[in-house]
Amino acid sequence: MTFASIVVPAYNAAKTLPKTLEALLAQSYDNFEIVIVDDGSTDETIEISNRYAQNENVQVVHQRNRGLAGARNSGIHAAAGAFIGFCDADDIWAPEKLARHVAHLRANPVVGLSYSGSTLIDNAGIPIGQTQTPKLTSVTPAHVFKRNPIGNGSAVVVRRDVFEDIAYRPKHEQERDWYFDETFRQSEDIECWTRIALTTAWEFEGIKGLLTQYRINPDGLSASTENQLQAWEQMVTKLAPLNPAFFEKHAQTARAYQQRYLCRRALKSLDLSRARRHAKAWMQTSLRPFLEEPVKSATTFCALHLLSLFGARNLQRLFAIAANSKRQGAF
Question: Largest CB tally within 10 Å, which of 30, 31, 272, 307?
């Protein structure tokens, strides 16, 4: 049976880490290890990690804070598995997730990255009624770059061979190789996936099911749309020399999708001015998202219109009334 590793980056995650680890220890696949990477935490993450390390299937790596990319790199370096999955310290895996990804990778030797859909949860761990349902098959480098089918960092299981193919060591690095670029504090995952798609022959393929519970944290890194955009542009600048023709063909459309995504993030925060700014930039950049994904694009503009019409406070009241009516069985 193929040995697998699950890397858990953890930074000040004491509130959520136990539930994450309990879910991972409950995996139906029984030939695996958990590698917790304490990324310079200052709360009880260290004590919690050390307590779980009493389990023979759990090891802990303690390091100075290096960010999410650095924690993942240290986890990959410490992992012994032929397949390596990632689960952030505030996310949850379904019990069958690892088994299904291992079976998928073993049955498809050309697939390097196996992923699945996710249910979105709030800070309390309650589903918010939204899911990530990515494209599962026939994934091209252009699709990876424009739409990131993996969706989030806790959805994927990767062959170790994939990481060996993209490993590099910066001149200043004396400890271990890099796979994710540690100069990125955001967009480090899409930078890595795009680099894999452009420089290797490994295929991306998903499996059916919502096998990850992905926590939406309004105070987390994903909430900062301006920083996200800057990191995304940094990624394009870095990778464009790998294949100039590819980026000349796809960068504008990808940039429009990025602006649409940031518009949707702003709408979820009921930030009208920011949503308008990203919507305008999206439309000025490219109309292809309307042609390629008309329903999602139109829905985004409808939401923007509703927020403009009612205002954030009134819209929140409408949502509260609707939620209360639903609880009472009104519809």
Answer: 307
pTM (2 decimals)? 0.90
Residue reference for tokens 């989030």? 152
- Per the structure, the count of domains in the chain is 2
Domain encompassing residue 295: 243-327
- Residues 155, 262, single domain; the answer is no
Compute the distance between CA of residue 263 and CA of residue 280 in angstroms, rounded to an integer: 9
